[in-house]
Amino acid sequence: MSVKTTPIARKTYSQEEAFEASLNYFKGDDLAARVWVNKYALKDSEGNIYEATPDDMHRRIAKEIARIEQRYPNSMGEEQVFDLIKNFKYIVPQGSPMAGIGNPFQIASLSNCFVIGNVGMSDSYGGIMKIDQEQVQLMKRRGGVGHDLSHIRPKGSPVKNSALTSTGLVPFMERYSNSTREVAQDGRRGALMLSVSINHPDAEDFIDAKMTQGKVTGANVSVRMDDGFMKAIKNKVPYTQKFPVHSADPKVSKTIDAEKLWGKIVHNAWKSAEPGILFWDTIIRESVPDCYADLGYRTVSTNPCGEIPLCPYDSCRLLAINLFSYVEEPFTKKAKFNFDLFKKHVAAAQRIMDDIIDLELEKVDNILNKIEADPEQEITKSVEYRLWQNIKEKAVQGRRTGIGITAEGDMLAALGLRYGSEKATEFSIEIHKTLALEAYRASVHTAKERGPFEIFDAEREKSNPFILRLKEADDKLYYEMLEYGRRNIALLTIAPTGTTSLMTQTTSGIEPVFLPVYKRRRKVNPNDKEVKVDFVDEVGDSWEEYVVFHHRFKQWMEVNNISLSKNYTEEELKKLVQKSPYYKATSSDVDWLSKVRLQGAVQKWVDHSISVTINLPNDASEELVGQLYLEAWEVGCKGVTVYRDGSRSGVLISNESAKEEATESLTPFPTKRPLVLDADVVRVQNNKEKWIAFIGLIDGKPYEIFTGLADDEDGILIPRWVNNGVIIKSRNEDGTSRYDFQYQNKRGYKTTIEGLSHKFDPEYWNYAKLISSTLRHGMPIDKIVDLINSLQLDSESINTWKNGVSRALKRYVADGTAAKGQKCSNCSSTNLIYQEGCLTCTDCGSSKCG
Asked: Locate the Ribonucleotide reductase large subunit C-terminal domain: which residues (predicted)?
């Protein structure tokens, strides 16, 4: 007998209500509030918001974790879980778990990342297309994907089809990249990592593939470097590439100059920040899951940000522990790290992560049920169905987790330790060693209560270097593991914590602070009382500059009774930073070799991998990049990413170089507007509305813009086939300026749309004047878009208009143009470029339009 249930009525909030409530929650931090509302507040496909603050979200998550806990002995209750995760203070589920746990409105996975691949050496078209479909199916469920191309036969190899010879792997890079760019993921595009072995004969083509502007823009690329190649570089000897890679009986074999190929890798990374480097033999040697390689756990690639090496069809969920919160009496001489509380919370975090696997298995079952119920033919949906069956099998057998950290930079500063110093590095190693021991101890204790992961076999793991390290550090833990097993096949990672760190209001991941102090601008009314006007722009609008302090730097100031309300000069701010524990500890200050050595030392206590960036100045040499790569290999890193200031990948550049670039890019526009301008008509989808923009051009470059809704009720109705015309300036009877748009209809007659500036909301027009005047003064288009994005716009409607203008103007930004001064909302990287009018992160591959 079935029982009808009535859906529970849920309270909903408007975007403005949720923003105001979360703004209060984050104590006025508008960036944190917007990130939370836009990315993590519970909402349905109609845009209804069901949570007002992160407290609601944390209650939702705690309720679901507690539900799973009830299945097992010694269960945690809802309040216990809530106290651990509330306020982003201690334990922070990241990304997909935060958005998806307890979310009834999405049929999506809780996994942040996946790796896929064919069994064996399949490089048929069927196998290649199967992978293409699998990555798309995963991306539509919010997952980032990685897969390796080393199985594809090299260019020129014989094939038994009409082509006669293989095209090699590069054309398929472009295919996978394009598929990624086509997948919508809640306002962003999919994220993809493509890798290949340096032993593959097409490795050089792979390394060069992204050097052509506009190519393979939807993927990150990394090269799997083996020890043999690294030794060939050091010893200056030739190296032999093979296909199949590392085969004792290869079908293709060629000997190359290792130094020459190494030079190309270093040069490309110096110039464009790609390819990334994966030290593959280190990854495999240290990998605990690879002890079960013959059972399907052979690692083949990594997720898009490189911190999780995975076998085909395995996935991982991420959780961060906020290290700053364990510092008692921070920024004082009495500051100390509470190791006892930290250990207790690591154990709880590992238990929560195991609960999240059960929640993920429920989500995967929902996905499988949906696929079964879909009215498509069985043959159409068979690949997707088998994909999720494989993912479920791996999750059940291995129960992999991904515990990491955030706020390492703030933790060290709060303890009075300078990031990069010998003392700070020693303390960081102690923290990560403790995290590893306590997480593994928790996994053993959980296995005692819940049973070990299905294929656990201590005999297989007895020679693994990571397991032996644990044994040497704590033999009691090791022998408990022999007795009870372990609940999870692998446990630890250090991921980028972009949006997570915005909400914890700390430094990101293992990284140092980027800047402790910076400046922003906001528009002000000069007639308001006590308003401070720092400058007036070319259209007469008044702006105030205000100082923004990094949250924990501000806390240091408060502890030391330093005024936060004072209007500091540049010199005073400089002296203030010099007094603080953040002095010489920013991302641009930290000694590069020290950072590499820190990563290598910490890596020994992380069973997966680490996402960390080594920032270099613009004048850094290629030789230095090569030196850092070699050092990273020698100290035991599993991968390394180096970004040179101002390289094509879009890292933030210094003020001085920004000024130089702006000067060189100025367009010599006339100071007086011509009466008639050629114009493009650009249509964009803006917040689910159809918008239209009229962009006046001089020499093919934007000079002014009019934009708004494209309909006959609230905006302008214009035939779809009209894509150009002219904007004519004239005067009204009262002497005010008038702008009309004129185009030829299909019969060749001129049709005029009158009064562009009066067709849209006057408030929009004020901002349009600001942007248009900036365009007239020749500011480069990518900087116009940055200017729009930096405007302190209050109302939701104005913010919507800003998005529309931004999207319309991005059409004129050349593909590959660096987007300086912006951060990826997915992984917090500053390596963003404009591609096909959208901001694309070259680190994780995520993309945002508008």
From this structure: 111-643
Q: Which are the contacts of 615, defined by CB distance < 8 A and separation ≥ 6?
A: 587, 588, 643, 645, 651
What is the tens place of the pLDDT at every residue in 188-226? 567 899 999 999 999 999 999 888 766 888 888 999 999
Domain count, the chain: 4
Burial class for 390, CB neighbours closer than 10 Å (0-12, 13-18, 19+):
middle
Q: Could you tell me if 500 and 94 are in contact, meaning their C-beta atoms sit under 8 angstroms apart?
A: yes
Q: Which two tokens stand for residue 297?
A: 């756990």
Instruction: Answer with the one of 428, 463, 484 that is the final residue of a domain.
Output: 484
Confidence of residue 650 (pLDDT cuts 50, 70, 90): very low
Higher-confidence residue of 87 and 691: namely 87
**C-alpha span between 693 and 684 (Å, rounded):** 8
Q: Is residue 794 part of a domain?
A: yes
For residues 10 and 68, membership in a common domain is answered with no
CA distances from 579 to 347, 427, 556, 573 (A): 37, 22, 10, 10
Task: Please tell me whether residues 409 and 325 are part of one structural domain.
Answer: yes
CA-derived radius of gyration, the chain: 28
Q: Is 404 a domain residue?
A: yes
Give dist(CA 56, CA 42) in Å, integer: 9
Beta bridge partners of 571: none
The pLDDT score that the predictor gives to residue 662 is: 33
Q: Is the pTM of this model over 0.90?
A: no
Predicted confidence band at 1 (pLDDT cuts at 50, 70, 90)?
very low
Of 360-374, 419-433, 622-636, 726-740, where does mean pLDDT reach its minimum? 726-740
Average pLDDT, rounded, for the chain: 85
Tell me the residue range of the domain where 30 lies: 1-52
What is the Cα–Cα distance from 276 to 354, expressed in whole angstroms? 31
Q: Is 53 helix (H, G, I), strand (E, B) or coil?
A: coil
Residues in the chain: 850
Listed in sequence order, the residues at least 6 apart from 232 whose beta carbon sits closer than 8 Å to its beta carbon are 238, 239, 258
**Close Cβ partners of 196 (under 8 Å, ≥ 6 residues apart):** 148, 149, 150, 169, 202, 203, 206, 221, 223, 224
Please answer whether residues 599 and 610 qualify as being in contact, where contact means their C-beta atoms are separated by less than 8 angstroms. Answer: yes
The per-residue pLDDT for 701 is: 79
Angle between helices 422-450 and 475-484 (to 10 degrees): 30
CA angle 359, 362, 365 (to 5 degrees): 155
What the block records as the tokens of 24 is 């209060």
Q: What is the pLDDT of residues 429-444, one digit of tens each?
A: 999 999 999 999 999 9
What is the CB neighbour count within 10 angstroms for residue 428?
A: 23
Strands (DSSP E) found in 517-556: 517-524, 535-536, 542-549
Contact yes or no for 398/363 (Cβ under 8 A): no
Residue 556 in any domain: the answer is yes
118, HSE (Cβ side, Cα atoms, 13 Å)? 18
* Percent of all residues in the chain with a pLDDT value above 90, rounded to a whole number: 53
